Known about the structure:
This protein has helices spanning 12-26, 33-41, 45-59, 63-70, 73-82, 86-98, 105-112, 117-130, 136-143, 146-156, 167-180, 189-196, 201-215, 219-226, 229-257, 264-275, 279-290, 294-301, 304-315.
Amino acid sequence: xxxxxxxxxxxxxxxxxxxxxxxxxxxxxxxxxxxxxxxxxxxxxxxxxxxxxxxxxxxxxxxxxxxxxxxxxxxxxxxxxxxxxxxxxxxxxxxxxxxxxxxxxxxxxxxxxxxxxxxxxxxxxxxxxxxxxxxxxxxxxxxxxxxxxxxxxxxxxxxxxxxxxxxxxxxxxxxxxxxxxxxxxxxxxxxxxxxxxxxxxxxxxxxxxxxxxxxxxxxxxxxxxxxxxxxxxxxxxxxxxxxxxxxxxxxxxxxxxxxxxxxxxxxxxxxxxxxxxxxxxxxxxxxxxxxxxxxxxxxxxxxxxxxxxxxxxxxxxxxxxxx
Length: 323
């Protein structure tokens, strides 16, 4: 369940009023961050697009550019993300991960391994629209290598088979994974790709159950012992998404806040991308796993208006930075 559902009584008149409220929050001496956060968290992504249109019409300026000029740091990154449609935001995140020096494989895995066929197709269209017709598959192929590249390219096709398959095929796929992994010296990554990247979530769930039955061991455990590095993390992400996607996102959120420092960009990406999808259920899973609420962990890791915005997205209402 989403935490951000928008204003169910949203009207053109309200959009105009909210655009004016945002303008006033940025005019004069200083910036009223509370007002900006209140407006953003009480409206959905689509409603924010209407606000941006009204703002442009009324003031002849881009709302996003004005927000960027008034804000900075993690708060700016979070606000800019909220002002993008979900699949455009995914496309931006992917582009950022493969631009500049080095590649952010963790981010590629986080997006590419957790989106369905329709979402992948929409991401590719958004990517081309944002980056002068660039092809996401080509860019992923050019910036990754080896079997990890094959995984990313396979996922970018958005070609999971959604048709129902019989029990014999399920057993065949489970055995293929066994033969490609623990039953041989080394690993046949091509066979892993052909199952994990082409089968639907529903079919993969059955394959995982059959694998457990045949091997008396979880596929997740075998991947962890048979593979390494980014490829291992990618395959594990696919498997974890099939088994329990709320747990998968909860683990990523926890990892972003553990260790030395906080991975704020990862935290922002996860909370924004799930806020209109299933963040309430992710937060529930988080508390089950770690015996502390997502709200409390974020509150202890972040500060200021940035903390206020993230906490507001988690609970679906405005939360003051002093709360």
